[in-house]
Request: fold
Amino acid sequence: MFLPRTEGEVAWVLREGRAVLPVGAQSSLTGGATPFGEWVLSLARMDGMGDVAENAVRAGAGVALSSLEAALRPHGVFYPPVPTFHGALVGGVCSTNAAGAATFKYGSTRDWVRALTVVLASGEVLELARGDCRARDGRFETVRVDGTPLDVPAPSYVMPRVAKRSAGYHSEPGMDLVDLFVGSEGTLGVITEAVLQVRPAPARLLVWAPFESEAAALDAVRRLREEAIATRRGDAAAGLDVASIESVDARSLELLREDGLDREHGVPLPVGTRAALLFAVESEGDFADEGRIEDLCGGGRAGPTLVAPPGDDRRASALLAMREGVPLAVNRRIKAAQRDHPSVHKVAGDVIVPWERLAEAMAVYRAAFERRGLDHALWGHVSDGNIHANAIPRTGADVHAGEEAVAEIGEAVLAMGGCPMSEHGVGRDPVKQALLRRLYGDEGIAQMRATRRALDPEGTLSPGVLFP
Ligand SMILES: Cc1cc2nc3c(=O)[nH]c(=O)nc-3n(C[C@H](O)[C@H](O)[C@H](O)COP(=O)(O)OP(=O)(O)OC[C@H]3O[C@@H](n4cnc5c(N)ncnc54)[C@H](O)[C@@H]3O)c2cc1C
Reply:
């Protein structure tokens, strides 16, 4: 593994290597950061940070989001679009256009990247500031740091209109060259530094609400979303500014119970709870009274809501641990199954549909697993219509059936105008690579390959990522 500290060292590795895989914290869930014989180029040591100025901060690709958060806190600002895993590095989140729970309010990484420094496969360097180079007549024309010209075709396929996507190269009329690199999963260049926008940190309260049915929970999500949109527009005086809403389904709740997490974290799950929401409300001043929260959660509740007010970090951590406990519980079961069946691995969709189609989509996801007799759990960033549809495989045959189910779910999502790769990317996952081709067709894949060829003619960078 190479652990460069300077752009010059990164350039050397790229010039000398025949196949190079850039990696951050290797938390990718798509195999994108898992080497198969390439030279591994870790950006972890490029972890310098500048001062906060004009609501932005310059951060090396190796800065962990947890370190970024800690460095920003004393300045009273924060970087909003963090994924759930805060150990991810700046280069990794930019390369995957990562997004988290609060996309509903803040968008994804792309919306917060002001500038990037990129080292190309040739070792040449690009300094890209947003606004400096936009696609014109289907091409980007710019110059490298050494003054030589660069001409790159811009993709022109139409991307699905959903809250977030990590599905191949960005494509939009007149798009910015910065946006080509955000979400390119290490296939176009190595990001060594980013200028990230930050903003004043609001006070935040967290609410856990248990429901008797998924329908009641989705009704509450609809009301909370409407209130938040009206509040941010200025139409609802003293309304609730809901930044994120997470959901866990009945099977997810069973997993939490089976693992004793409700008792461990002091978050009771009343009998009859079939779904739960965890949502964050933000405010720059006073919070609306808790009665409003109760009203918006509405009927069909299986028990009282639990609130972690601003400053109650213990209660907030307990509520977050319930949500984060679900993927951990699934991973524990997969690990246990691997003892008898080493081929067992995680099988999950990372899908998003327009919010209005979510209830219908959830029924489709469940049916795809149930028809194959698969244990499964659905949870995720419900405010965006982004659900992680996970099989819980016990055998190799379950893995195979789960992959079929995920492919079927991906097709259904496409038919609903959604995107089958919402935040984790495509990586080396064969199901996701096939769905990428379904999404943009052969012509779209050909456009992506042409863009890649212009920047990396030998295909040295991240071979096998995005394209088989
Ligand atoms: C528990 C858990 C929760 C997660 N939750 C979320 C979530 O809520 N939202 C979300 O979006 N993702 C989530 N992820 C996935 C993952 O954390 C994100 O994809 C993250 O952005 C990856 O960052 P990383 O530093 O680990 O990058 P890596 O995994 O190391 O790399 C990811 C990809 O980017 C490329 N890459 C890495 N660094 C560079 C660079 N400097 N230049 C060019 N290419 C590079 C790699 O080649 C690879 O293709 C989660 C993962 C885990 C394990």
